[in-house]
Model the fold of this input.
Amino acid sequence: MKRAILVALLSVGSLGLTWGAYRVATPTEPELPRFVPSGALIYLEANDFSSLLGDWDKSQEKGNWLQSKSYEVFAQSRLLLRLEAASGEFSKAAGVPIGTDLLHQVAGKQTAFALYDIGKLQFLYITRLASADSMQSALWQTRSQFETRTAGGVNFFYRKDPESDREVAFAVTGGHLLLATREDLMAGALQLLAGEKAESVAQEPWWSRLVAAAGARGDLRMVLNLEKIVPSPYFRSYWIQQNITDMKQYSAAISDLTRSGKEYREERILLRKDGTHETPEGKGPAAVAEIINIVPANVGFYEAKAAPDAKECLELLTVKILAPHLGPAAPDKLAPQVQLGGGETGSASDLETRIDQPPAQNSVKGDSTAPLQAVFAKNRILAQLQLQTTERDQAGVFVRIHSVVAFRGESDWDEPAVRAALVEFVRPGFTTGQLGVGWNTVSGYSVLDGLWPLAVAVRGKYLIVSDNVPLLSSALEGVGKKPSAPAAVFAAAFDHQQERENFVTLTKLLDLGSGAPPNAGSPEFFSENIASLNFALKAVSSEKIVIHDAADRQTQTVVYTWAQ
Done:
């Protein structure tokens, strides 16, 4: 009897070991990029697209945005109108409405979307979805209206609208649902799924190099072939950042977004084309980590940068503190008016005026800036910092913006020279004599003795200037502390929860006093459009970004913190 029990236990144990070995040896499902034909410009992949879509539908942000002025403006934008026109053409080609209902029907677990042509909206969509669920979709129910074709040993359904030349193709195979707007994309994907020899996007050199540099895939991954995207006229027209020149230096980019509790983390990598970029020396990034220590806890925004040049530092100090009204003018989007005269195009007495160069713009030049230029030229600046915060007046009506600008030099600053240079800069706008431009020294910093509370502090290698004495005093508390942040070439943060209401109040006052003509019934850009987007995202508490630079790449970490 005991022998029988022992044999039974050994058999169960052997079966368990065999099953465990089987589970370990079971191959994981191939990555979806292996089934995406080469040539994609943009690639998106979600670990669980169905869950992401469900979370968005249930979110308060979606409801707030759809009812916002921001969405009202977006709904009338040229971009959305073009997308809606294309959606109508695809709906006609497919024989079913292309919208959110169909999207929910075809949303599976791991999902990939590859865009091949931005203007023509040519794409391939692959999702892992049970065949039984795929066959419940409205698209599958209309398959009898499609032509049946074969690729990779699998039948797929194809249809083309002769009026718009839009193509729609779909297939269901091996737990995958595939949609495409080009017949060759569908055929190529099915061939790759069948294991036939065909080039996938995962085999392209730019892709291999980029994915090798990236870390673990996030809940949502985006891969960009910038070498082909940036020259596109559509990218130039609709890229909201308008930094086309900066983007030209990169060949590809990847971004992984990971959600966890109250924090969303985005890891980005941008690969440079040549790898000969000169990165700041080790002192610069380390100085950024140091200078961030002086940021007070109650500040709404800060931005730190490594190794700025002297000209950039002077411009920052001028625009943020000394003469904010002298910042760059907003670009004029209207063509200049032509003054028609008697037909004369020039004067024989004015041969020195160049007509092939723009006229010189008024700027801060002359003797008043020379002392400050000399101060910055004598001390190599390792890092610069700007920080801003807003404050309501006692009546709660007006919003004041307070700023601090700080510089971390390689050597100690000459305090008398700094104070003399600041006085020389601001004197022409204040007085013809000395009234209001003398210095009072209090608690380790100096303040002008006039009506303007310009304050300056020199603490060894730190030069700190502010238009608000309490803010400067708070910043000085962090001087000399051990860095808690990592070295970086750039670091910035925005406290949305703290600044949200003040921003809305400020923009309303600016719109009322701008004197601009009525906006033809359209929402005002700042006080209504942006303010409503600000309200829709009120649950986003803060955002932080840290950038590291190397010769061949730039890495960026962005953290979004949610209040709830």
About this structure: Residues 425 and 465 are 14 Å apart (CA to CA). Residues 1-26 have pLDDT under 50 and may be disordered. Residues 32-203 form one domain. The radius of gyration is 31 Å.
